[in-house]
Specification:
Blueprint: H1 2-19, H2 21-37, H3 44-60, H4 67-84
Length: about 90
């Protein structure tokens, strides 16, 4: 049942990416920024969803969309949050 739900959500996510890639990109960027900035205090589920969305983003958006910008920004944000807590 859960696997079917995930499959349906992936289809919806891919369709949204095809319809409005900028909306999907900005939404995922916002969610990732929040989840990765607070990864030490965030729940496991929130971090897992953020990483899963990042993975699905690569499949959902066309290559022409600079999703690498999102990936690089998220990695830098993650490393900054680690450095800041030291």
């Amino acid at each position: 049942m859960f696997e079917e739900y995930r499959k349906e959500m992936k289809i919806i996510f891919n369709n949204l990416g095809a319809l409005d890639s900028e909306l999907v990109l900005t939404t995922i960027h916002s969610y990732l920024s929040q989840a990765l900035a607070q990864w030490r205090t965030a729940s496991f589920q929130d971090v897992e969803v953020a990483i899963c969305m990042l993975y699905q983003l690569a499949e959902a958006l066309p290559v022409r969309v600079t999703w690498w910008r999102l990936v690089c920004h998220s990695i830098l944000l993650f490393r900054y949050s680690q450095f800041r807590t030291m």
